[in-house]
Design brief:
The protein is an alpha/beta fold. The protein has helices at residues 44-51, 74-81, 99-109, 115-128, 144-156, 174-191, 202-208, 226-231, 236-244, 278-286, 317-326, and strands at 2-13, 16-28, 33-38, 59-64, 67-68, 84-88, 162-166, 194-199, 211-216, 219-225, 263-270, 289-300, 303-313, 330-335. It is elongated, with a radius of gyration of 24 Å. The structure holds adenosine-5'-triphosphate. It is found in: Cell inner membrane.
Length: 336
């Protein structure tokens, strides 16, 4: 468990303390993928760098399990940091060293000396990230996605229990982003390590995170399970992020439907409800008619979900909405 207790952080600029993170408390559970999303300047990098005390908090306590990081000596803190790996937006690889040597670097730093032992561990790590063939290349000979895979192998070298990802896919194209996120999800599943990632893209959160915190101007304005936050965003900032990840019709842009007759509804299906023919059954039973204005069926991590925007007609609409809700479908009325 990573635990923040009444933590806050200010930076001293021109003799004045400027708050970057207002006081907050937050728990991140072992083995989860936790996303922190926010616009530029919201405080994401500050927050993630507090976890390994690359930034020291101005107040409050940070704990890893039972260990209070904020109370440790420099030597003990160095030891604790071995349990925390980190990957970066711009990879931060050593340009003059081969892929294998980049991955070996933290092993040597931690005291490994035996070449055969180092080589065996590097081979294992490169196999995990799919770069066995590239061991003797230099970073300049790799694509962005391959560089980030080297970064991941390097971060895993000393078997950390926490992996911090600082905008790890922001410099990558969508397809490469998807494959790096898939690798992170696999690592989380198989090695059971906790992943904390910061991003400004809701789609990254949707694909890999279990829970998310939304940061806005140094405050956590919303946090919870990704499915809850994604399907029912409460705060204006969260809504903007979610809507960026959706076609505007599904996002429920009300102006789009001003001239559409009927009651405009958005239905959200989660899990098994996504696959059952509830809408057909309910409309038949209540005698209502509907037309589909927009829709999307996708996944939030491993959870299938669907969102449909409909116009519904007929005297049985209220009964239909009640039956849909009873069947576990979430219904919002956008306009009537
Ligand atoms: N070393 C520093 N000295 C002074 N101010 C800083 C320092 N680092 C960050 N800040 C300020 O703290 C606030 C939060 O910055 P932070 O980098 O944590 O945000 P962010 O959400 O990660 O932004 P970005 O996505 O642009 O990296 C900003 O106003 C920033 O200018």
């Amino acid at each position: 468990m990573i635990r923040f207790v009444d933590v806050h952080k200010s930076y001293r600029v021109d003799g004045k303390d400027i708050p970057a993170l207002h006081p907050f408390s937050l728990d991140i559970s072992d083995g989860e993928v936790f996303g922190i999303i926010g616009h530029s300047g919201a405080g994401k990098s500050t927050l993630i760098r507090l976890i390994n005390l690359l930034e020291r908090p101005s107040g409050g306590r940070i704990l890893l399990g039972d260990t209070e990081l904020t109370a440790l000596s420099e030597a003990s803190l160095r030891e604790q940091r071995r349990h925390i790996g980190m990957i970066f937006q711009h990879f931060n690889l050593l340009a003059s060293q081969t892929v294998a040597d980049n991955v070996a670097f933290p092993l040597r730093l931690a005291g490994a000396r035996e070449p055969a032992t180092i080589r065996a561990r590097v081979d294992e790590l490169l196999a995990r990230v799919g770069l066995t063939e590239h061991a003797d290349k230099y970073p300049s000979q790799l694509s962005g996605g391959q560089k980030q895979r080297v970064g991941i192998a390097r971060a895993l070298a000393n078997r950390p229990s926490i992996l911090l990802c600082d905008e790890a896919t922001s410099a990558l194209d969508p397809q490469t982003t998807a494959s790096v996120l898939e690798l992170l999800a696999e690592i989380n599943r198989e090695l059971k390590l906790t992943i904390v990632l910061i991003t400004h893209e809701m789609d990254v959160v949707r694909r890999v995170c279990d829970r998310v915190a939304v940061l806005d101007a140094g405050r956590i304005v919303e946090h919870g399970a990704v499915a809850d936050v994604f399907l029912h965003p409460q705060h204006a900032t969260t809504r903007r992020f979610v809507n960026e990840a959706l076609p505007e019709e599904v996002a429920g842009e009300q102006s789009l439907y001003q001239h559409v007759p009927g009651r405009i509804l958005r239905l959200s299906f989660r899990g098994e409800a996504t696959w059952s023919p509830t809408l057909g059954r309910v409309t038949r039973e209540t005698g209502v008619d509907f037309n589909i204005l927009a829709g999307r069926v996708d996944r939030i991590k491993d959870l299938p979900y669907g969102q449909l925007t409909l116009a519904m007609h007929g005297s049985g609409v209220d009964a239909a909405l009640q039956a849909l809700r009873q069947a576990g479908i979430e219904v919002e009325e956008l306009a009537r």
